[in-house]
Amino acid sequence: MARTAVVAGVGPGLGASVARRFAAEGCNVGLLARSESSVEPLADELDDAVAVTADVGDRDAVEAAFDHVREALGSVDVLVFNASAAAWEGTLEVSPAAFDRALDTNVRGALNCVQAAVPDMLENAPEDGTAGTVIFTGATTSVRGREGAIGFSAAKFGARGMAESMARELGPEGVHVAHVVIDGGILPPEGDVADPEEYLDPDAIADSYWQLVEQDRSAWTLELDLRPHVENF
Amino acid sequence: MARTAVVAGVGPGLGASVARRFAAEGCNVGLLARSESSVEPLADELDDAVAVTADVGDRDAVEAAFDHVREALGSVDVLVFNASAAAWEGTLEVSPAAFDRALDTNVRGALNCVQAAVPDMLENAPEDGTAGTVIFTGATTSVRGREGAIGFSAAKFGARGMAESMARELGPEGVHVAHVVIDGGILPPEGDVADPEEYLDPDAIADSYWQLVEQDRSAWTLELDLRPHVENF
Amino acid sequence: MARTAVVAGVGPGLGASVARRFAAEGCNVGLLARSESSVEPLADELDDAVAVTADVGDRDAVEAAFDHVREALGSVDVLVFNASAAAWEGTLEVSPAAFDRALDTNVRGALNCVQAAVPDMLENAPEDGTAGTVIFTGATTSVRGREGAIGFSAAKFGARGMAESMARELGPEGVHVAHVVIDGGILPPEGDVADPEEYLDPDAIADSYWQLVEQDRSAWTLELDLRPHVENF
Amino acid sequence: MARTAVVAGVGPGLGASVARRFAAEGCNVGLLARSESSVEPLADELDDAVAVTADVGDRDAVEAAFDHVREALGSVDVLVFNASAAAWEGTLEVSPAAFDRALDTNVRGALNCVQAAVPDMLENAPEDGTAGTVIFTGATTSVRGREGAIGFSAAKFGARGMAESMARELGPEGVHVAHVVIDGGILPPEGDVADPEEYLDPDAIADSYWQLVEQDRSAWTLELDLRPHVENF
């Protein structure tokens, strides 16, 4: 039976690539974004996809969105948490509101999506095999606090801590939790950059996400990093 | 001239040890806690100490508390951020309120205290020497996501991300930011434990905190771990 | 054209699984082991495979073995460095000879194989695409010094340092260097264990190795961990 | 009673600062270097110091040197392993000899010194308190494999693995093992650099080393980093 994957945080970049790739592998795909305009065209393009809108930090809206996906496509097997909000200000410059927005989206938003998706996974857990997969999209800042971005650093570290905690708790229940450190810039959809070699191709990232879904539960990855071959790191 | 240190999060354990040690080294000490009863006796015990009460997550209360310290003891040179609230529930059990409380205290609380203290440090920065010191009290969970404690994992990782971000931003300005990973249980004040050898003595931790304050700015530590010699880690 | 892969350190476990998987993907496979008996039957089983024998710590023998592979199967595109020797003694118990053996196999052996394989990769580097892949088999001890195994800790940390150094140097040249942390026990070939769920299936590990070979160079992984879903870590 | 400290790897820089500081704290100091000229003047300068010469990679010479120290100053309480040899060549350029030299000094040399010093510590272990201290001088490359320095990366990672392994094994026996990551350049003795602010003052590093010796065993540090306040890291 087809798996149902929810991609939370779908814009024209990585989220869309993941959705397309997972659909091509036979998944039903729920596309969650803040605005309809980001996801309607993609939902139309894909078979067995639905677009739902919610700010991930809004718990009720997230629950409603997952209910909608569940009714349309069946219970959730895979969650890709790809939503992110940055706070690019330094220690004294950042406003409490901007700082909170980063926490709301990256950390509280992750909790909202996880609490909406994981019960489905546990309910359908097979005797033998993967009950479900949760993938967090991380960044360089997830593992290296970034100068001048105290809110983003708090938020990305925080989400990584959640992923590690969940992996230890849920692994034995059959739920695979993984955290991917995207260590570089993602090629923008228009591709109008000086040197595309310096960017991660979102389709290539989506390949690695799919491999995580496919991993046998005897050899699961909690964390991997991804970067362009020319990246100076 | 005597330095003024604020210890945010003073209970009978580590916070009190740090306050006593810093006072013994000649610091004026501001003792910040949620309730007066936790800090009044200690403020009475020490010379040049004031007790102030605030929930660190309450921005206005924190600002008022620092104003009070500033008026009583002078501008702030050292901040020890020792407040912590845990959320000891797993992924599906944790309530949004408990999860938020962990973030409010450990992460947003850190921001509130930092934004109240660091401007003093920058204003008084000497040409040569340390302008100020900020020490975060971390835990094992700061570097290892803990099974069954998703909120605490998010919060302690988040605070560590802030410390790293701040260290990179503020180091060149003369402010020393350090994060201490307390990897074990702290000996409770009553000391009624089966084997005290298995616990960190809070006075010994306070020694290391003081050494961080004293470090020459040509050789600053961002992170160190502390654990009992018998700890299995 | 078929790629040529050398698996250095082939026993009946992980090395054999990697060789079989890479052969199934169309690779020519060079099987390098210390004794012929470990690899002859596997070489007979696979098409386009040759068995070569060398102690990886013996530089001349390694060079001769790679020459043999090169003549039989063409220039080398992929190296899986899977050889390992442990020194399971503590600080005072370990003999200099046992300590050296661990370094010779894990560290110097890696250098010998790398220096024999990488020139082929650089020579055949395409304008666009991967010039070659080097995968190191790591262990829990690669990232966590192990009590009572000082030599193994030195050796596994050392090899990881080499992998990181090489990744930074050779990535821009098109050579993908990856280090895989195998965080658990590998299921023995006979499979006579109390609970197979607690072990990594070597075929599942080989899947992840193959995915590393297939990664697009815009999104390469330097390090990933692998462990059984029930692992307590 | 005065403690006896051996500093292995004494040149005019960090080793000399550590020796001077430890002597000033009342230690007897054994100064171990490859050539007499590096240590004789310092031994003359200090009270209760002896100079001994050995290549740390030469096991017999190391044993003889420690015997000499032991006879002159008493059994060894503290070892600072500060010897280092770099191999600044890349993957294909490094010669086996240069690679071995890095391993011989940093890794095998550490084993030789540790096996000569630790038995003294264990023999004199008090019921309560520190039996001895071993400090490894690490570098940025200890935690981040360095492009174009494969041998140095192998060696510095390897020594760090040893330190972690030893800390877990020997901590419960009362021996404190610590690893210090020096993340920046050390101010050269002549001090003729463009901007001294960009360098670590070796006397400031020695302060932190001494604090490690003084730590109460209820709160030991395994690892700390040190860098100039202006360091870009």
Question: What is the compact description of this entry?
Answer:
Chain A has helices spanning 14-24, 36-45, 59-73, 96-123, 150-170, 202-214, and strands at residues 4-8, 28-33, 49-53, 78-81, 132-139, 175-182, 223-226. By secondary structure, chain A is an alpha/beta fold. In chain A, 64% of the residues are buried.
Features:
6 helices; Rossmann fold; 7-stranded parallel β-sheet; alpha/beta; 233 residues; homotetramer
Protein model, in words:
The structure is a homotetramer of 233-residue chains. Chain A has 233 residues and is of the alpha/beta class. Chain A has one domain: Rossmann fold (3-Layer(aba) Sandwich). Chain A is built from 6 helices and 7 strands; from the N terminus they run βαβαβαβαβαβαβ. Chain A has helices at residues 14-24, 36-45, 59-73, 96-123, 150-170, 202-214, and strands spanning 4-8, 28-33, 49-53, 78-81, 132-139, 175-182, 223-226. The first copy, chain A, has a 7-stranded parallel β-sheet, sandwiched between helices. Chain A is globular and about 50 Å long. The mean pLDDT of chain A is 96. At the A-B interface, helix 4 and helix 5 of A face helix 4 and helix 5 of B.
Q: Give the SSE string of chain A.
A: EHEHEHEHEHEHE
The helix fraction of chain A, in percent, is: 40-55%
- As an assembly, this protein is homotetramer
Task: Label the structural class of chain A.
Answer: alpha/beta
Rounded to an integer, what's the Rg of chain A over CA atoms? 17 Å
N-to-C CA distance of chain A: 42 Å
Fold-level CATH name of chain A: Rossmann fold
